[in-house]
Amino acid sequence: MAQTNAASCGIMLEIVRVVAQRLSDDQDRQGRIDGFAGKGWSLVATLVNSARLLEPSTGSDVEPQVAALGRRLRELRVSRGLGVRELARSINVSPSLISHIELGKGAPSVKTLYALVAAFDVPLSHLFVEAAPTSPPLSSASITSLAAARQNSSNSKDEPLGLSTDRSNGPVQRVAKRRVIQLEHGFRWECLTPGTDPDVEFMETIIAVGGGNPESEMKTHNGSEYGVVLQGKLGIKIAFDSYVLGPRDSIFFQSSLPHCMWNAGDEPVRSIWFVKGRSTQ
Question: Is the pTM value of this prediction over 0.70?
Fold first, then answer.
């Protein structure tokens, strides 16, 4: 079935490319899109979106980021010559939990991830994985823009319709290319730096509605944390004190104090965090 869908998808996308090119030529001749061409662009958009529905499944409902994190953690464990039971014993969790995480069947909690990072002695930024690209439905207007960009850019002549040509690197971290860590209880971390820094963690944290719990087990680690809320209501418990932060509220605390966070509102919470010295021994 997957092979049939893949073949159908390939045929449909090839039709899309041919129609898009013909319509692009038509637009050049007329200077505008009307009549058949206007209807044609709507048809192209429909074909593209239908082709995406035919794309074969990976065979797993697990988020790609969770599976990629599991593989990364397994590679680190094997490279250090640690068995599953030995690693589990060292961080005080069950061997089945380690296997569950490594196989991509579930995401670790924040506390478990920190324990694994300490056991492997690597910066947290080493564990961020590439985010899977998303493909929102295309409108006829976006198809028009893609075709125009394809025609006007000599660098994109041989590339599939819709493929980004932004391959910039350097000190800038593009939002579309952020590396992520997907955790359990609705937590998602997005790295805001293009490289790995052993001394600093700079990231955006997103907590889904209902994510976290003020009664959840608190964690401690080295370093200090600075945070500012961008959206939603963020609940933070530090030692025996609890706080609720709204947009533009900020906070600072020593990470050695027991702490936990949760979504205290009815919309996703987005906040920026700067953690300094977590990996300091």
Answer: no
